[in-house]
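(Protein data)
===
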Amino acid sequence: MTATIRAVLFDAGATLLHPDPPVEQIYARELAADGARFTAPQLAQALSGAWAEVHENAAGDRYGGVQGEPEFWRSFLNRVRGALDGGQVSTEAFARLAAHFRDPDSWAVYPDVGPTLARLEAAGVRLAVVSNWDSHLPSLLEALGLASRFAAVLVSALERTGKPDPEIFRRACSRLRVEPARALHVGDSPREDYEGARGAGLSALLLDRAGRHGGAPDRIGSLSEVPARLGL
């Protein structure tokens, strides 16, 4: 990082927060209650395949826009259920899953988030969230006590553009009133976060909490490493 960093942008999922209990556990419980029969590997494969199809679509339209989010999630769940047994998710199971993941109590903030944000704030670094998420992310961040820490929160479903498109990164820099060359983005996706940010002219760090990208450049294992990378 040759330029002095004045702003740090963070991804949300798997960077600031994570589902607790894990997504797979909740899907397994609700799909089984809905009559589906499957093994854990089959569910993992179905979820992986469904997300792979989602990632092939433009990030800005990923969640169907604000008005189309219920239809997006229903289609996603039916894709998962169809891969398991050819069936469809019932209205009742869909409602239970939607209510679960909109409940702030179903999410947890990583323990390294608070201290890292405080260190950056104390150094005068401006902070933002840039995430491919549906329109409920701002209210979720508020409920988890994180929203006030960020000067800007950019969500793909609301911006109608998303990572790795450079536009969402440029909008974030504009709202923070910093040049892209003086901004750093931190996230867990090599393509959407690391490559996307660098393509927009930002510096980037790849957050690798699980150690899956051992050979990747600019890799960190914890957000606690960010301040040191900035020389703080």
Q: What stands out?
A: The radius of gyration is 18 Å. The chain has a mean pLDDT of 93.
